[in-house]
Amino acid sequence: MKKNILVVDDSALMRRVMCDIINSDSNFEATDYCRDGLEAYERLKTKSYDGVVLDVNMPRMDGLQLLERLQREGIRARVVMVSTLTTKDADVTILAMERGAIDFVTKPTNVIEAKGEEFKRQLLSVLEAVIQTQTVSRTARQTTRPRTAPPIKRMSSTGGKNKLIALACSTGGPKALQSVIPYLPKNLNAPMVLVQHMPAGFTKSMADRLNELSQVSVKEAQDGDVLEKGHVYVAPGGRHMEIVRSADGSHRIALNDMPAIGGLRPCANIMFDSLSKSTYDEIICVVLTGMGGDGTNGILSLGRSKPIHVIAQDAASCVVYGMPKMIAEAGVVDEVVTLADVAKTITKNVGVK
Predict the structure, then answer these.
(1) How many Cα atoms sit within 13 Å of 216 on the Cβ side?
(2) Choosing from 83, 197, 309, 334, which is the catalytic residue?
(3) What is the pLDDT of residue 145?
């Protein structure tokens, strides 16, 4: 049975384009459309959909106002935002995910882009990810490593070592991170480097919002940033992030413009790979919700040269159980925890200064 999708956009052209894209896939059907948030609100009060594609800027009631009303009245909807790359829209999109939107796609700037293959691929892949049925088996909730785990170095139980946290996430990540980063203590005894798959512009909005909510300092990483404990460095959209050692023994951020890997830039595998050359004694690797398997190969490679401890989000609390599933199936996960316990588990493993 096809999944029924509601399209909400004040542009007749964009409604038509998105409906055509959705209807081109045998799994989906654009069963209804609305011209603004108010019309969508009236529709969602009486009818449910498998997914809602929602524009940000609309008359009468915009996307953010609609989400706020749905949240306030307990009306459930699986929402994908469609947002332009402007700073204002990026800020609103981050707030929209805070208020219940699951993910977003970037809105085309012209008709040619709107009818292009890239926008079609983005929209269909995100829809497929966010409305897939989450089947949670007991094996998905396991908290021990399979006996077939590959040979990697494990963290010791001794304290006081020089540690780093490296986190990767994708679909559902911006909202998930708000259940993690704000709950880390200000005196966290390690820096954190973080890859979230997002376009340029959105990562800064996300980092700024997390910084407002958190005790730790959060920023979009800049080339040359020196890593400090109690600080979180978010890889900027559109650039790969590596961690390199400086002559004075400190570690700094190095950004590069190498081609996207598997369509991803930033790519978590590159971040994890770069840590093999660091002088950190122990590295806590964290994998949260997201489709695909970015991060798994990098963590496997890192574990052959550095002591690591791997924390994965459990299936039940993931928007998309893809990235955590891949690393769990690789046999290197030390702890599988619910999203609400990720911050506590990180803190337990690195301590406070």
Answers:
(1) 31
(2) 197
(3) 46
Residue 294's identity, in one-letter code, is: D
Contact partners, residue 185, CB within 8 Å, separation at least 6? 215, 216, 347, 352
Concerning whether 294 is annotated as a catalytic residue, the answer is yes
Alpha-carbon distance of 158 to 283, in angstroms, equals 14
C-alpha 211/C-alpha 209 separation (Å) is 5
pTM of the shown model: 0.89
- At 311, the amino acid letter reads I
The span from the CA of 269 to the CA of 256, in Å, is 14
Is-contact 248 240, C-beta < 8 A? Answer: no
Residue pair 288/278 in contact by the 8 Å Cβ criterion: no
Active site residue 197: yes
The residue annotated as part of the active site, out of 294, 314, 334, 341, is: 294
pLDDT tens digits along 177-223: 999 999 999 999 999 999 999 988 899 999 999 999 999 999 999 99
